[in-house]
UniProtKB/TrEMBL annotation:
It comes from the Eukaryota. InterPro entries: DDE_SF_endonuclease_dom. One of its GO terms (molecular function) is nucleic acid binding. Residues 29-114 form the DDE-1 domain. It comes from Trichuris muris. Residues 142-186 are annotated as: Disordered. Residues 143-153, 169-178 have a biased composition (Acidic residues). Residues 154-168 have a biased composition (Low complexity). It holds the Pfam family DDE_1. This is DDE-1 domain-containing protein.
Length: 186
């Protein structure tokens, strides 16, 4: 899911499988909650806990209100503790940001660019940004992530205790790979 801050959807063709939204008032947290968090299997009938950092968008009144409507309790990790209490921030977000930066540099070096009358290079279009290769970050191409969202067809995934153990296994794998590779740390 990609959310851009803008009034209207431009007349561009976006890649298949990429959910693109535009929001004028930075209401993107509500979009994410509705299109990602609420779409989890079993969400409609159960309360849930969402743990995230103290980013301003996470703590906004409108976000808290939306979470209450969805029966979601939010736990906010205090500033400076995210990398300790949220291992995916180190093992997933940092490599993701590094990869996006590499894609940007590649686009800058190799792309066909348009220029303004003043001689400045134009930014990539929204469709070009959505074509950046971000799915190759995971060694399994994201297939392990699908297991976490499975509705119980796989053994150990989908049941209350099974899904927790599957998540714990993935987090443990990421922690071990992070410990082995010091370049992945902040």
């Amino acid at each position: 899911m990609v959310i851009f801050r803008r009034k209207r959807l431009p007349q561009e063709t976006f890649p298949p499988g990429v959910l693109v939204h535009f929001d004028e008032k930075a209401g993107w947290m509500r979009l994410w909650i509705g299109n990602v968090w609420k779409q989890r299997p079993g969400h409609a009938n159960e309360r849930s806990l969402l743990v995230w950092d103290s980013f301003r968008g996470h703590t906004a009144r409108s976000t808290r209100s939306c979470l209450r409507e969805c029966k979601v309790e939010a736990a906010v990790i205090p500033g400076g503790l995210t990398s300790i209490l949220q291992p995916l921030d180190v093992s997933l977000n940092k490599p993701f940001k590094n990869h996006i930066r590499e894609e940007w540099i590649t686009w800058m070096a190799n792309g066909q660019h348009a220029f303004t009358t003043g001689g400045y290079m134009r930014a990539p279009s929204f469709a070009e940004l959505c074509h950046f290769e971000v799915l190759d970050l995971h060694p399994a191409g994201g297939s392990e992530d699908d297991e976490l969202w499975d509705s119980g067809e796989s053994e150990g995934v989908g049941s209350e205790s099974g899904s927790v153990s599957a998540i714990e296994e993935l987090v443990e794998e990421e922690e071990l790979s992070t410990e082995a590779d010091p370049s992945t740390r902040d």
